[in-house]
Amino acid sequence: MHQNVTGMSQNGAVPNNFAAFRTVLTRDADELARNLTDWEQSYDQISSGSFHGVLDELRLPRMQVFRESISQSVRQSCRVWPGAVWFGFPDQPDSSRINGRQVEPEFVMVQPGDKEFELLTPSSHVIYGIVVCSKLLVQAAVASGCMVDWRRLHTAEVLRVDPAERRQCVQTLAALLAQQQDAIAAGYSARQLLHCQNMVVEALVGMLDHSGVEPAAAGSFQRRQRIVARVREYILAHRDQPITVPELCEQAHVSRRTLQYCFEDVLGMSPTLYLRRVRLNGVRRQLMGTGAPQLAIGAVAADWGFSNFSQFSSDYRKLFGESASASLRTQALRLQN
Description:
The protein is an alpha+beta fold. The chain is built from 13 helices and 14 strands.
């Protein structure tokens, strides 16, 4: 991992009189997840191949702006800091999902702070994000005469917005992030900070003024979401045990065909593939942890339900583009430096 950090205080907080900008480069999906400041996240790599991730993050006193670029498809479990609202602008909307729901080109994803949600993003993916203090957003909307149904906004997953306003918002974020490295290094005045923050808020409020909250997913889709969630909980609770699809069907009280359909509709993959991906990512997460040098790969693999070490080794290499032993060596060297 490489980090370039400018203006960040020791505890990660951003004082009111300056901004913080950093770029993070990493070859591990979950490490990228841990580097988005004040988010609770974990990432599981879904598509096969070496992972490359880049995070550009700008912290302002009451706002966070970022651009995340990832090379592989990833399932993300996310939670934004309390008292805020997150807006997500994926560059491939029709290939992205929030809580299993397909995102359309004119959609912007939205979630309130302190609420867990799930994203599924495609390979070669870029997403811009804004996390803004709820009070700041409300104040700006009132000042501009923007009428927003805040109750519906805080329960929404996606907003349908004017395409031109969406483009304007993304362009504002891109321009702001592009100029930060040199600008912050040279020093920002309180007026300049306020101008940056206002620029983003104005673009966001302009977009919200021409948006509509999409209706909640249909009851049938919500049922499929619940079935997938129940199966996921069972998989994690029995991670060291050999689990079969009939066993998952029994736990979810559905037929094999229904289970297959639920997973394909909500996650875009079969339950068998999902089970394998969850377990392989679980092994990698442990190998890339702080206690990595003391771990035995075979024991970790067994803890995640892999009884055939040869098959595990092959599957691990195919998914992550390197052997499990190479991952362990890389992490051991990183911890030494």
